Automatic annotation (TrEMBL), chain A:
A GO BP entry: stress response to copper ion
Top-level taxon of origin: Bacteria
Alphabetical list of Gene3D superfamilies matching this protein: UVR domain (4.10.860.10)
Domain UVR stretches: 136-171
UniProt protein name: UVR domain-containing protein
Any one GO molecular function term: zinc ion binding
PANTHER family, alphabetized: PROTEIN-ARGININE KINASE ACTIVATOR PROTEIN
Pfam families: UVR (PF02151)
Database matches in InterPro entries: UVR_dom, UVR_dom_sf, YacH
Automatic annotation (TrEMBL), chain B:
Activity modulation notes: Appears to be allosterically activated by the binding of pArg-containing polypeptides to the pArg-binding pocket localized in the C-terminal domain of McsB.
Lineage, top ranks: Bacteria, Bacillati, Bacillota, Bacilli, Bacillales
Motif (RDXXRA motif of the pArg binding pocket involved in allosteric regulation): 338-343
Gene3D superfamilies registered for this protein in UniProt: Glutamine synthetase/guanido kinase, catalytic domain
Naturally occurring in which organism (per UniProt): Guptibacillus hwajinpoensis
Gene Ontology CC entries for this record: extracellular space
Protein name: Protein-arginine kinase
Length: 178, 365
């Protein structure tokens, strides 16, 4: 089979495009494919990220001028990796774990769309991170207890609680390897 | 290179196992996406930071994660030849992304090639377990134990509410993608698959060609996997997928029976014509090869073709891809040269198979 574009070289790439149920077949050679910018199978040129960024652009409400919303989006910057929300909508991927906190208020609508309405994790918890979360919860409980003790002027108990908090925090930061 | 040695290098050891439901299910795969807490994700990190991750892997990941798996070997992309990388992609052990976009990408491989852990791909770690046949739970258990093994060494990016944090929000939560590779020639032939796919999609599962997103289903091989990673437990995801795949298997078997009952002679004709093409052609394109291999594999599975091993479809589909063909030839090939080489390779492989089966018959007598 010869390439349907140039009609010279043999066709080595065969595509089937299905748009709205309409099937079109392409048979082209590598050179024409590159020129046409058609994706080589499996190269992911049009990947989930392109589709995802389509989903992410729902932000601009109809009627609002684009410059205004551009300005707004520019304001959020991830403190750890520097990613802006605008960049995120382009690449469809986050730059670091802190991004999830930075863009937290915009996250849930996106997650709902891609995960069938779900927004919270229900699966596995890593042992070590699990332990750290446990300690964090304990520390928070103890802090509020300590406040109570201080309010009731039970300073000895408050000091004891403070020491426990310190040792817990020390342990978690040591285990966390930070 | 001799054909036998080439095949033994080209075919992953796990592919020789047949596994449950191997008349339809070729392989089951589970992968976890994981990231390090204190490092920027690979998509934004620089070479330096990625190198640090590699260094950590090199120094910390030396022990044996699982006695059935043995030691893992670290292969860095920069020290591999282009053709070697391409071969790894064609064996589904690494992604194209790792070659094309990653800075200081690497892969940890087990000797039997069941386990591959990509480092510095889209996420810091992509833990993948591939097993033969319909064995999702086996793949999951193994991937899970490898995940525990890595977690004992590093701090994962994890959030109590959002789960495992991944670069792409489509993976967040469990970070798990479970998939099953199925050979569905009868459902394609009877045009039933077109009706089944939309139903599967409604259940939060996706059907794709064998090389993932956007790839065509070469040789009637389809991949069914979970789309949703958040809000469901790992076990639920595995069980949902398992249930759907079981139904698809039943439908395929029913379609095969119906074809045998209603149009046996047409089916035989189709299968033997394809076998004839494979045995005799001198130039063959990958698409035609895949179609013929699919027909012959169907013939083997329904007992029409004897003297050929089941794994031949998997094996030859992988062997006749451009990367492997060029490795076999030891040189880069033009498309026409590839088609000639492909035809030769298939003919020789079938010849070898007939010799082996004759020999084993002789041994039995």
């Amino acid at each position: 089979m010869t390439c349907q574009e140039c009609g010279e070289r043999p066709a080595t790439l065969h595509f089937t495009k299905i748009i709205n149920g309409e099937k079109t077949e392409f048979h082209i050679c590598e050179k024409c494919a590159k020129e046409k910018g058609e994706a080589e199978p499996g190269t992911n040129h049009f990947s989930i990220h392109n589709l995802l960024s389509g989903l992410l652009n729902f932000e601009t409400p109809i009627g609002e001028s684009p410059t205004q919303s551009f300005y707004k989006q520019e304001q959020t910057n991830c403190p750890k990796c520097g990613l802006t929300y605008q960049q995120f909508t382009k690449i469809g991927r986050f730059g670091c774990s802190v991004c999830y906190k930075t863009f937290a208020d915009k996250l849930d609508p996106i997650l709902k769309k891609v995960h069938g309405g779900n927004t919270a994790h229900a699966g596995k918890v890593p042992v070590r991170a699990g332990a750290a979360i446990e300690i964090e919860r304990k520390v928070q409980n103890l802090r509020s207890k300590m406040k109570e003790y201080i309010e009731h002027e039970e300073f000895e108990k408050a000091a004891e609680t403070r020491d426990i908090i310190r040792s817990l925090e020390h342990r978690s930061s040591w285990e966390g390897g930070e | 290179m001799s054909l036998e040695r080439f095949i033994s290098e080209a075919v992953s050891p796990w592919m020789k196992d047949e596994g449950p439901d191997s008349d339809i299910v070729m392989s089951s795969r589970v992968r976890f996406a994981r990231n390090l807490k204190n490092y920027v994700f690979p998509i934004l990190s620089d070479r330096e930071q990625n190198l640090e991750v590699i260094k950590e892997v090199r120094s910390e990941f030396n022990d044996v994660p699982d006695e059935h798996i043995g030691e893992l070997e670290l292969l860095e992309m920069e020290s591999l030849k282009p053709i070697e990388k391409r071969v790894l992609v064609e064996k589904h052990l690494i992604s194209r992304n790792l070659i094309e976009q990653s800075k200081n990408g690497a892969v940890l491989l087990s000797e039997n090639e069941t386990v591959s852990i990509m480092v510095n791909e889209e996420d810091h770690f992509r833990i993948q377990c591939l097993v033969a046949g319909f064995e999702l739970k086996k793949a999951f258990t193994l991937a899970n134990s490898l995940d525990d093994w890595i977690e004992s060494k590093v701090d994962y990016a994890f959030d109590e509410r959002k789960g495992y944090l991944t670069s792409c929000p489509t993976n967040v939560g469990t970070g798990m993608r479970a998939s099953v590779m199925l050979h569905l020639p009868a459902l394609v032939l009877t045009q039933q698959l077109n009706h089944i796919i939309p139903a599967i999609n409604q259940l939060g599962l996706v059907v794709r060609g064998s090389y993932g997103e956007g790839s065509e289903a070469l040789g009637n091989i389809f991949q069914i996997s979970n789309q949703i990673t958040l809000g469901k437990t790992e076990t639920d995801i595995i069980e949902d997928l398992q249930g759907v795949v079981m139904q698809v298997i039943e439908k395929e078997r029913a379609a095969r029976r119906a074809l045998l009952d209603n149009s046996r002679i047409e089916l035989e004709d189709r299968i033997y014509r394809s076998l004839g093409i494979l045995e005799n052609s001198r130039i063959i394109q990958s698409k035609e090869a895949a179609k013929c291999l699919s027909d012959v594999r169907l013939g083997i599975d329904i007992g029409l073709v004897n003297g050929l091993s089941k794994s031949i479809l998997t094996e030859l589909l992988i062997l006749t891809q451009p990367g492997f063909l060029q490795q076999f030839a030891g040189a880069s090939l033009t498309p026409t040269e590839r088609d000639i080489k492909r035809a030769t390779l298939i003919r020789e492989r079938l010849e070898l198979e007939y010799q082996l089966s004759k020999k084993s018959e002789g041994d039995e007598q």
